[in-house]
Amino acid sequence: MSAPEDNLAFDQKTTPPLVGRPGGMAHIRSFLKRVSNTGFFYLLVSLVFVQGLSYISQFIVAMLLSPDKFGIVRSVEGLLGIAVVFGSLGMPILATKHIAEITDPTVRGRLLGRLVILAAGFSLLTALTTVIVGQRFVVAEARPYLVAIAWSMMLTTSNRTIVNYFQGTKQFKTMSIVNIVFSVLSLCILTACILTEELNGWIIGRYVGEVLFLIASMTMVWSIVRFSGSLPSDYSYGRLTQVGANLAFSLILRLILDNLGLFVLAYWHYSASMVGFYGLSSLIVNGFGLFPGAIVGVVFPTLVERLREKFSYAWDLHKRTQRWMLAVSVLCSVVLFSGSYVLIVFFRPEYDLAIPILAILAVTLPCRAQTSQNGMFLVICNRAEITLWINAVVLLIAIVVQWIAATNFGMTGVAVGTVFIEVVSMALYLLAVRQQKMIHERSVISEGV
């Protein structure tokens, strides 16, 4: 059996590969058309206008507010992002995976209802916990705002679960159109609220945006979703909670790593302005990370198919994807590094101290992209527990490194420490993936294949 073709239109095996063929611009146009057919652009729009909604809203805040007030927003949003992942209990991921497994519309509707119930219910408990114990991890000025906005995570987790239902059914285009319309409307309301009420307006605008998304998403699934009814044992409340909790905990460790610099600065009582400088830089880097992240999302189902056929096919696609992600992430890194000075053009002049921080953090993009791709490969190989252990080890190292950096070298030291941590994470994931390949090769030799 010959290896299937992979050409970035990952579900079209019969199309000859792009690389190595003559034809110039004609093949570039063909390549772009195939990329479009994969749903890459629709998935990218979804990331920007749904999961990236908090990023966009924070950019608005950064442009309209002073660095100290933006530091309050960034401090709250960093903690809230982790709380939302924990509160969702992995239900958005399970919505994509399990909905794709089911063909019966009735069963799909019941499962979606059950996932939304679990996401909303557990996020309510998480919001209460955040209000009680989370205030220690934000700057003092941000604590009343954290209490006010924490309850919005019930809306956020429900929205993400419903939206991922459409990803599971591959309705990328419809999902993206609705997301764009309501995101633009939400951002207009957010901007108006901030202009009139500043930080209080930010709270009001965030709630209005989430409510609008919930209305839109529930309207689209109202004829489908059911909040009662029997389901197979694989989709019982207990089973969904168990699987979702494992996914959520792994993601939380990664999110803590991504926001550790902010938490350390807040813990050591750096000024809100310093948190704002660092927060804006990390926010921009995370935003650019959406581009390689979209590649991961598109490749995921095809990589599963290749692994079922033969390990070598999956490995070949994995290596090709790594090269694509390296190219995209390096390009993003160069753009950020060389263009970091434009911060004071798009944002307030007071953000000039964030320029060197953004230049430093831009270096982490290729490392994060490779970590993401290697982590996905481990999950597909049913070795998700390895990602959990790696993240735990890296987090322990990161706490020590950032503790020393924050107490001795300040904000710049924390940024350099982040680069070191991402390099360590990338190296450990690379070693783990290589180990999986070696294990497979030994098993093939032992079987005499």
Question: Can you tell me about this structure?
Answer:
This protein is mostly helical. The protein folds into 2 domains: 39-262, no CATH class; 289-449, no CATH class. It is built from 19 helices and no strands. It has helices at 25-37, 40-51, 53-64, 67-88, 91-101, 105-133, 143-149, 153-168, 172-197, 199-221, 237-267, 272-288, 290-309, 311-338, 343-346, 355-361, 364-380, 384-408, 410-447. The longest helix is centred in the last third of the chain and has 38 residues, at 410-447. The protein is globular and about 60 Å long.
Radius of gyration using CA atoms only: 22 Å
Please report which band the strand proportion falls in: under 5%, 5-15%, 15-25%, 25-35%, 35-45% or over 45%. Answer: under 5%
Low-confidence stretches are 1-22
User: What's the SSE pattern?
Assistant: HHHHHHHHHHHHHHHHHHH
- Give the rounded overall mean pLDDT: 79
Structural class: mainly alpha
How would the global form be characterised? globular
User: Quick one: how many beta strands?
Assistant: 0
Domains (count): 2
Helix content: over 70%
The number of helical segments is 19
Distance between the termini: 14 Å
Q: Give a quick account of the main beta sheet: strands, pairing sense, barrel closure.
A: none
Features:
mainly alpha; disordered N terminus; 449 residues
Write the layout of secondary structure elements.
Layout: H1 25-37, H2 40-51, H3 53-64, H4 67-88, H5 91-101, H6 105-133, H7 143-149, H8 153-168, H9 172-197, H10 199-221, H11 237-267, H12 272-288, H13 290-309, H14 311-338, H15 343-346, H16 355-361, H17 364-380, H18 384-408, H19 410-447
Helix pairs in contact: 2-3, 2-9, 2-13, 3-4, 3-9, 3-12, 4-6, 4-7, 4-8, 4-11, 4-12, 5-6, 5-8, 6-8, 8-10, 9-10, 11-12, 11-18, 11-19, 12-16, 13-14, 13-17, 14-17, 16-19, 17-18, 17-19, 18-19
